[in-house]
Specification:
Layout: E1 2-3, E2 6-11, E3 15-21, E4 26-32, E5 37-44, E6 49-56, E7 61-70, E8 75-81, E9 101-103, E10 130-133, E11 137-138
Parallel strand pairs: 1-6, 2-9
Antiparallel strand pairs: 2-3, 3-8, 4-5, 4-11, 5-6, 7-8, 7-10
């Protein structure tokens, strides 16, 4: 049986930030399709459990321009939107989001604050982590 990892999200006009909180993740597999279907799975050594996500994002995305970084405490995804427009929610399905999915208030930015230049991944040096194209990857 698999579990859902705690996942945070935030957006900008042209991208979505997803942070999957799964320390020391192993066997990371991810798949992103242009229609916004997103799959993730990994194993957590701490409890030897399999974790999975299967999300239908609100709208189409650009797989080629999207990136992921596997860090020691989390997996960070930068998903490029196919069209530069604000989404009313992360998931296509209306209604209450799943309990494991939360807004990342540290990265959140309202449409009105778009030009302020704060709230993203900050000064993180992603070059020290393994980068992956989101089309279909196994670590």
């Amino acid at each position: 049986m698999s579990r859902h990892p705690s996942t945070k999200w935030a957006q900008r006009l042209d991208k979505v930030y997803l942070t999957i909180e799964l320390p020391d993740a192993k066997d990371v597999k991810l798949n992103l399709r242009p229609d916004g279907h997103f799959n993730f799975s990994a194993k957590a050594p701490a409890d030897d459990m399999q974790y999975e996500l299967d999300l239908e994002l609100f709208d189409a995305v650009s797989v080629e321009e999207s990136q992921a970084a596997v860090a020691p405490r989390a997996i960070c995804y930068l998903v490029k939107k196919a069209e530069g427009k604000w989404w009313p929610r992360l998931l296509k399905k209306e209604g209450r989001p799943p309990v494991f999915l939360k807004v990342d208030w540290d990265k959140w930015q309202d449409e009105d604050d778009e030009d302020a230049g704060f709230g993203d991944f900050g000064d993180m040096d992603f070059s020290v982590w393994a980068w992956y194209n989101l089309s279909s990857v196994t670590k």
